[in-house]
Write a structure and sequence with these properties.
Helix content is 35%, strand content 29%. The chain has eight helices and ten strands. Helix 5 packs parallel to helix 6. The protein binds adenosine-5'-diphosphate and magnesium ion.
Length: 236
């Protein structure tokens, strides 16, 4: 089932008198349950694509549909709601609030702090192996632990789409593989749709789909649709 569609999307940034074509008219669709890796050299437009996908920025031209709704033209209020309800983000540098504990950071990902939601925050931290570390500040956690807190925060509102921008870029490869196992579990067991910008071979080898971008264009779009379980076994 189609969840996302990019139709001839262009994103141009103005820098002084220069116009930078970060995304140069791309079209693709992503189905519910896909695990998509976006790969390509630095500066090729990967982060811009992810920001557009998550409604953090708007395209200069073209349409972006999420569940059939064009977010390119959506009012600011509706877009904020869509982002809050349907999108989860994970970043390379974790983006945790340093003065909040792990649990408080996860709770900060919720629009409404209901009792149910607070329970969910605890339960996610337990599932991610952080049951004993919930009341620690980020500075007392390892990189892998901080990224797991960030994953819990991104999932606490049960997003339809999980977006990750080089989530293992600041982690050693062993810890990075731990993070891949968490994402693989979410995708396989919970049907979570995941789109991840990555330079890690072990993530792109696991993905069901690889979007290869260069200079703001799609070089290739490999819909593999089979999971390479060998990668996970090696990662254990
Ligand atoms: P990647 O994530 O693949 O490294 P980006 O999407 O970050 O690439 O950037 C694509 C191009 O757009 C680069 O040339 C970058 O310098 C430019 N760019 C990205 N964001 C901005 C911005 N906010 N203002 C001006 N230029 C930008
Ligand atoms: Mg980037």
């Amino acid at each position: 089932m189609k969840l996302i569609e990019f139709k001839k999307v262009v994103k141009t940034f103005k820098q002084g008198t220069k116009a930078i074509n970060a995304v140069g008219g791309i079209s693709f669709t992503i189905d519910k349950g896909d695990f998509v890796a976006i790969i390509g050299p630095s500066g090729s437009g990967k982060s811009t694509i992810l920001q557009l996908l998550g409604g953090l920025d708007r395209p200069t031209e073209g349409e972006i549909e999420i569940e059939g709704k064009n977010i390119a033209k959506m009012s600011e209020g509706r877009l904020t709601r869509l982002r809050r309800n349907s999108i989860g983000f994970i970043f390379q540098n974790f983006n945790l609030i340093p003065t909040l504990t792990a649990l408080q950071n996860v709770e900060a990902g919720m629009a409404n702090r209901s009792t149910v939601a607070a329970k969910r925050a605890r339960s996610l931290l337990h599932q991610l192996g952080l049951g004993e570390r919930m009341n620690h500040l980020p500075s007392l956690l390892s990189g892998g632990e901080q990224q797991r807190v960030a994953i819990a925060r991104s999932l606490v509102h049960e997003p339809k789409i999980l977006l990750a921008d080089e989530p293992t870029g600041n982690l050693d490869s062993r810890t990075g593989q731990e993070i891949l196992r968490v994402m693989a579990h979410l995708n396989e067991k919970m049907g979570q749709t995941i789109i991840v910008v990555t330079h890690s071979d072990y993530i792109s080898n696991y993905a069901t789909r690889i979007l290869h971008v260069r200079d703001g264009k799609i070089l290739s779009d490999g819909a593999l649709k089979i999971r390479n379980k060998d990668v996970l076994e090696k990662a254990v």
